[in-house]
Amino acid sequence: MSGLYDVAVIGGGVVGCSVLHELTSSGYRCVLLEKNSGLVSEASAGNSGMLHTGFDALEKTELSCIQYTQKNIWDVLHKTGIPYHKIGATMIGWNEEQKSKLQEIRQKSEVAGTKGTREISISTLYQMEPHVRHGAHGALWIPEETVVDPWLTAVTLAHQARRKNATILTDTVFEGCQYNGSHMTLNTNKGHLNTKCAVNSAGVYGDIVDIIAGCPNFRIKPRKGQYMMYSQKAHGLINSSILPVPTGKGKGIIVFKSVYDNVIVGPTAEETDIRSKPPIDDSVTKRLMTVADNVVPKLHENRVVRMYTGVRPATDIKDYQLHCDVKRKWITAGGIRSTGLSGCLGIAHMVLEMVREQLGIEASYSENRTLTRQNVVMETNGTAMIDGIHYEVTHPIALCKRERTPSLL
Ligand SMILES: Cc1cc2nc3c(=O)[nH]c(=O)nc-3n(C[C@H](O)[C@H](O)[C@H](O)COP(=O)(O)OP(=O)(O)OC[C@H]3O[C@@H](n4cnc5c(N)ncnc54)[C@H](O)[C@@H]3O)c2cc1C
């Protein structure tokens, strides 16, 4: 922890990993602090692994971050070798009221710049998805929706930054900070470090970390999501992600296939006081089973291999909370509720602009935007070796990869 860092990033979820990568690639000397033993251990370890196109994102910052990510993520995936599958999504209206909303969603999707979204006939729907329950009233095809390995995406960004000399400190808890007019000192459970500025990307703890720094911006209202994951043997039952028509409360419960072919039903959305890994709720499991049965009846013939939960860093405000306190040299990238994976590169780019333009901090090194192909080997004990470095595998989607191919991710 010696010397003066340009930027300290607090939190090693997908947002922090992406910020670390963007700033390091731009020549900043960065350190990332993560309180858990592994990166990607909280909200980012409990998501669906979908790269959304922004077809229903109306919030200004969220949409622009998703659009930026959509432009730039493919290069990262190709060059580093992260598995993804542009599987598309089929949104189904199960009654006339839901059907009537499909046109509006298609228009929103056009405004968002999502390519190819179109309404399809009922006969086309059942040609494309023969195992979906009959009785649909209307459907929308969103071809650009993609599933990705959500753990490997975030860890890759951190790993690529590490290869360019970023420092990653796990088991390191941010506990406080002081700004002395020239630089900041951050206090952690492992000692102090000095930095020119700090970025709060602490996810569901973002409001607490802001308060500790004396820069309160918002209040987190954790929202739990629960999933039910089927064996990969069920993979032939769907060909795309099957979405309900969204309500004001969110995207609703989806029946989708992970990039490793596990069919997954979820997530739900429940307010909770628990910020970390809430338990599985049996009544919610029953609800998920009902959805599975209502959407793809044959799913019940298959084995459920895992249940998991995640917590969204939701707030009262729908849009991302991106703030820069110039006086305190403090940037907050918080309240990244339900599209942090889909918007991660855009969020990181906005943070870079704040560091450069609002804080006026210059990079210590020259820019290095090289991305290198990684050698990823899944171990049997829940860890993976990436180019010879051990990482804890924390996301159920990545952990379930082993069911089919025991040795390689
Ligand atoms: C059920 C569910 C489904 C979702 N589905 C999708 C999806 O399909 N696609 C999509 O794009 N998004 C999805 N999301 C949203 C996405 O997962 C989040 O937006 C994203 O994970 C937020 O990332 P983050 O880095 O802000 O937070 P986190 O992943 O929570 O990371 C914050 C990190 O900060 C660390 N931290 C906290 N306090 C401290 C401290 N004091 N010191 C050091 N470290 C600290 C935490 O340990 C944590 O690792 C979903 C979310 C959920 C819960």
Domain count, please report it: 2
Query: Which structural category do the helix and sheet elements fall into?
Result: alpha+beta
Question: What multimeric state do the chains show?
Answer: single chain
Report, as a whole number of angstroms, the end-to-end distance. Answer: 32 Å
What percent strand? Answer: 25-35%
- Count of strand segments: 23
Say which CATH homologous superfamily of the largest domain is assigned: FAD/NAD(P)-binding domain
State the major sheet. Answer: 8 strands, mixed
Radius of gyration, Cα only, in angstroms?
21 Å
CATH architecture of the largest domain: 3-Layer(bba) Sandwich
* Helix percentage range: 25-40%
- Summed over residues and divided by their number, the pLDDT gives a mean of 95
List the bound ligands.
flavin-adenine dinucleotide
Count, helices: 9
Protein described:
By secondary structure, this protein is of the alpha+beta class. The protein has nine helices and 23 strands. The strands form five sheets. Strands 1, 2, 9, 10, 11, 12, 19 and 20 form an eight-stranded mixed β-sheet that branches. Strands 13, 15, 16, 17 and 18 form a five-stranded antiparallel β-sheet that branches. Mean pLDDT is 95; it is low at 405-409. The protein binds flavin-adenine dinucleotide. The site of flavin-adenine dinucleotide has 42 residues, from α1 and β18.
